[in-house]
Amino acid sequence: MKAIPRTDRQAVKAAVKEMYALNEKDAEAIMHQVLANVLYTLSRSFGFGKKRMRLFVDAVKDTDLMMRTAKRFDGTPVDWNAKDNVEYIKNAYDIDLTKEFRIEVEYAGSEKK
């Protein structure tokens, strides 16, 4: 197998780093859009005012922090993530978010897939 020249390896590393940065920006933008939809719905359909909205946002942030930092008594991380929350909602409330909300992707120069 032929070794990749050092300059090419550096270029690949830079490209991968840029790709991860773009993916992170995309994920953050999607998260903001979804949360904005949820907050708008809470406001318009359920009468959430400024105080209840702030309480809700803070509770979501607390849950996110807990999921990212939770540890057992022995210090090992708790294996819990957003997918577990999707399953919880499905089992507890019979709401399958994977079926309720489908993502439609439109690719440049093609029809929706």
What is the tally of helical segments? 4
Q: Helicity, in percent? A: 55-70%
**Rg for CA atoms:** 20 Å
What letter string, H or E per element, gives the SSE order?
HHHH
The secondary-structure class comes to mainly alpha
Count of domain modules: 2
Cα separation of the termini:
38 Å
Summed up:
This protein has 113 residues and is mostly helical. Helix content is 68%, strand content 0%.
Question: Care to describe what's here?
Answer:
With 113 residues, the protein is mainly α. It folds into 2 domains: 1-48; 67-113, no CATH class. The protein is 68% helix and 0% strand. The chain contains 4 helices and no strands. It has helices at residues 6-46, 50-69, 82-93, 97-100. The two termini are 38 Å apart.
Note the main attributes of this structure:
113 residues; mainly alpha
Topology:
Layout: H1 6-46, H2 50-69, H3 82-93, H4 97-100
